[in-house]
Amino acid sequence: MSAMAELLAFQRQTEALAQVMGRLSWDQETVMPQGAVEQRGEELAALEAVLHGRRVDPRVAEWLAASNPETEAEQAHVRLIRRAYDRATKVPADLSAAIVRTTALAHGQWARARASEDVASFLPVLSEILSLRQQEAAALSGGGDAYDALLQDYEPGMTGAALDEMFGVLRPRLVALRAAVAESGHDPVPLKGVFPKAQQLALSEELARAFGYDFNRGRIDEAVHPFSSGSGHDVRITTRVDEAEPFGCFYSTIHEVGHACYEQNIAPDLTLSALGQGVSMGVHESQSRIYENQLARSRAFTCWLYGRMRDRFGALNVQGEEAFHAAVNRVAPGHIRTEADEVHYNLHILMRFDLERAMLAGDLAVPDLEAAWNDRFLADFGVAVDKPSNGVLQDVHWSAGLIGYFPTYSLGNVYAGCLHQALRRDLPDLDAALATGDPSPALDWLRDRLQRHGGMRPPRETIEHATGAPVGVEPLLEYLDTKFGEIYGF
Prior knowledge:
Layout: H1 3-30, H2 37-55, H3 58-66, H4 72-88, H5 93-116, H6 119-141, H7 146-151, H8 160-183, H9 197-210, E1 220-222, E2 228-231, E3 234-239, H10 246-264, H11 281-295, H12 299-313, H13 321-328, H14 342-361, H15 369-381, H16 407-426, H17 430-434, H18 440-449, H19 459-467, H20 474-488
Parallel strand pairs: 1-3
Antiparallel strand pairs: 2-3
Helix pairs in contact: 1-2, 1-3, 2-5, 5-6, 8-14, 8-20, 9-10, 10-11, 11-16, 12-13, 14-15, 14-16, 16-20
């Protein structure tokens, strides 16, 4: 075998083991018995030790040095494997295993703290996670910016300074849009009623199928915090159900289907390779957000959904397609990020971005996090936090050690804005299909332009290749101004 062939064969086994580890994490969040938490932590730590050993295996360096990549795909394989090897060799094996073990245990502690509204019980393990991630950042950064070092796990090539610049443009425009909505004097009638769980899940499955989710290679389960897991031929999603608020179920499902379809639609010959998964969390989020927002919250699609909801649930308190579209897109400063409207959503992310950077840098002590969160939320949203589960305990990310992950949500919105602008340019009749509940023209465009390529190109190049234009914030801001200007009459 050539060095390239040996490298790819070794990588395939590493990717397969990583998928097994991901499946254990999926199991932990869905069906694992509570009493198994400590054992699961040991299992995950053991697997991480095996994976770390493979990632730093000296033969990888030898194969990389001897490889002679000829095709674009081979060059991309070498680029990504070399990047992963360089990062892995900087992190001690015991530190890597400690992070996995601690975050596995922390998930259960976070869930219990959230259920009992007890922030204090979660803070000790959060402090431990923060310390471990600070050690990892120090090992990776080599004296450089610690946050930038962790950010590379989620958005390679991005920096905190670049995000600051981007968010500095977003924030004032979003604040101005929120003010225009508030000053419009219009408040759409919200959807109210009781929507039985079984019927919500049935319509949720129908929506998943409409948006291209392949149930032969996936499944839907319930979780406290909806997520997508896996790649290739086993890609699973979760959703949540509140019988008083069905949009949470429907749009969480569509959001996670966007993630899942990215993974399911990657070219089959890339399965279990370094290229066989989404290239970054920002690009991943662009898929979930464009599915959820620009497509599923569009006027054309909500007109179809209005009919399907009346078929499933009978008469609604919201009368007419336009009123229903406004209810789906109603702007209100709620506490929960995952339920936030498109105007407020990025403000949730910018707050988390600032708080976690401050914690990592040592400028914000963990015991002061709740107060800092509550103060910032009141300042940004004009609403006080009423309980921890609506505040600092609402997100799973910090318990999982995902410091540097949050800004990729807003970056994904920016990418989605660019993709939507190009998609509408190329598909001028898209609304006719969406009005029948058929988003397939847009899904085909996204699959062919972006999804099937997996990790072939770096994140920004992935978006620019798909759209034929540079990445910028203006397409997202223009989309938001136009959409909400029409709904709220300004």
